[in-house]
Write a sequence for this structure.
């Protein structure tokens, strides 16, 4: 039980999250078919709040970003995996909201 608690704490370390973001960003860019899409994917770690990351990309790059997360989820520590699964939920929700707005306009 103690080992699981330690793994959970380690999985949410800002440095660990940053390294997984780098892996996912690299994989997503590798999956993109065009340089334009690759250039649209940007992930920045907040220098003041290291647990906060800004994820920005073209809507057309979202599927590649999601694929990259899916590919690496099994390799992540439990807490990190939950973090990135929640990130996927947020991205899907935002993507759906933007699509709805587009249909209304």
């Amino acid at each position: 039980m103690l080992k699981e608690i330690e793994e959970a704490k380690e999985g949410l370390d800002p440095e660990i999250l940053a390294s997984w973001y780098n892996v996912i960003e690299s994989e997503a860019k590798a999956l993109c078919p065009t340089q334009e899409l690759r250039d649209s994917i940007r992930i920045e770690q907040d220098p003041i709040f290291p647990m906060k990351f800004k994820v920005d990309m073209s809507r057309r790059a979202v599927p590649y970003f999601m694929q990259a997360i899916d590919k690496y989820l099994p390799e992540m520590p439990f807490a990190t995996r939950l973090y990135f699964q929640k990130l996927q939920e947020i991205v899907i929700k935002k993507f759906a909201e933007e699509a709805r707005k587009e249909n209304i306009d």
